[in-house]
Here is the input.
Amino acid sequence: MHIYHYLLPVINKTLVLLLCISLMTLLNGCSYEDGEVKTNNDPIVFKLRFGHDMPENSAHHRGALRFVELVESRSNNRVAIEIFPNQTLGNDYKMISMAQNGELDIILPPTAKLSTTIPAIQVLDLPFLFATTSEAHRVMSAKIGLDLLNLLKKHNLIGAAYWESGFKQFTTDRPIKSVKDLASMKFRIMRSEVISDQFLSWGAKTLVVDFDKTRNALSEGVVNGQENPLGSIYGKKFHEVQPHLILSNHGYLAQVLAFSKQNFNALPKDIQEILLSSAREAAEYQWQEVHQAELRILEEMEKSPILISEFSEDLRNELKEKTQKVIEKYRMRIGSDIIERITQTIDEGRVYSGNELVIALDADLAGNSLLSGLAIRRGIEIAIDEINSAGGLLGKKLVLTARDNSMVSARGIDNLDRFSKIPNLLAVFGGISSPVVLSELEIIHRKKLLFLDPWAAATKIVDNGYDPNFVFRVSVRDEFAAGFLLPKALEESKKVALLLSNNGWGRSNHDALIKELEKRGLKPALTKWFDWGVGNHKQIINEIYESGSEVIIYVGNPVEAAGFVKEIAAHDHQIPVISHWGITGGNFIEMVDDAIDKVDLRVLQTFSFINNNSKMSKSVVAQYKEKYNIQSEYEIVSSTGTAHAYDLMHLLALGVKKAESSDSDEVRRALESLGSYQGLVKNYRPAFTPKRHDALDESNFFLARYKDGVLVPL
Here is the structure.
């Protein structure tokens, strides 16, 4: 095992150093260099080792040299770094292990080779994630990029900065003109499940081959091709053994400059900061070196016998569409929130063409109810695919952009302000949170944003007092929900407890439930309010039991619901719970675990794909399976959100067609005067009128119960 010069490696040296430090007043200072304690004024020299897998003529090695130069200069030569390029110390996996064990100080592995340890970081390896290098740089420099680096700390590494190899290209032994050509080939890949699935989505075979042995595998015909950035292709001379270079830009290859955590933490704070700042500054230098190197490499390759080509736009789009399944397969493993945050960061620099109409989504895409936002997104996307395949609207293609609000009102308002500045914005879809939408009503109407609500249920979202009213809803309305939930609860007992989220949504439901109780000459047995992140689940549930309540109406979101259900499950007898549908927008069933089997929990719903034999339902399920890589309708997340958003998108399209305009005032008036439309959720006759912007009522509601983790209609 290698022992580092900046840490005293054995006990006897440690004791010597400690003795030296304790006698500093007598000895005029001491230092440690090359294993010897010195008693002079010379500074301590920290000797570090830096291993990477690229050759000395690469942009990575030039970046490493720049990093060393910065560190040594800023530390006044208190740090000396020795570089070991070209897998001198072993392959990336070995060097990662060495750094984790404190046997190597600095490494530069590709993100794909960290993904087996840190699944989330493989997001950067997803095919067609970035369209340009500037998009990649924007993401890596944003907070989401820093958050991904911070994940390395749990695995004994300190992620300092992203370096890059650039976009991946193909070298092959034959041309690629179609997906069929790819399906006849075998490609060398690094060990990465994402990259393997990328090729499998195209029908190609793969073989894991060590980077240093790839040239031989190509020249001997063990594989038909490989993918790598130009610097790696040229540095390893793959172009000398393959006749075709195909500039595909189908994936991006980033590296992480990382430090051994235990060795880094043993360094003085000022040295740590020098290493981090130098790594980040050297990254920008290395990015420029990659860009300049690629220009030089292409010039050189054009002089060589290799044939250089590019994918046709049609083939590129076909491959991109096929790899969408890969993104969806890894969404939950990587984290839907991470994918959404990266997509949002990319979209911040997006330029829309005049041939596009933009649909915007403002929803919880990264918080506790992120599944609600995902469900809405998917409903919009499926409808957009159908509309675009039929020619789009007004001769233009529909495109979707989305921003997370994590159920925070200030974020929602900021999102709408950003959306309002997008040219050709057609409409904004909202998300699960009634408080967020209520806070947005002013900006919606001030900016005349056509706002479509597929989830948030507060009555005043639609009955908002604005004239004209730009909000249209296909969802539950709390006033109607109360008229449905209370009779269901009263079937159990007149001793009804109300358990409500202490926000605008909870208060909207409370008002409606009290009115329904008063109509019957009743009062709640107990009313309990709770805040987000409430920690006193046991106390609240005990109070409900002590009140003599025999049934609970619950209005809240997944995290708190899981805590309450667990507490009910722990009692000798379980009180039935009739729940509003907010719990379905997150990972409730995972959080509640097996407690769900002990409690009689029934949930308000408006739609289900399960046991639904309608032609439209079957069509949407088929598209959902194909697009999002699922096998069964039981895997569709928060199906009501998907169904509502799907219908709203098609109703919007009908409004645009009737108005023959994308102007929000014109479309608003058209939506108020649509004829009948057979939607996924119901036959709208019509969906809206000038006085009624709610498309659903109590007749569309039913209760469902969780069975094997899935809500099944009763």
The chain has 26 helices and 26 strands. The chain has four domains: 11-44, 48-317, 351-474+638-691, 478-605. Residues 1-40 have pLDDT under 50 and may be disordered.
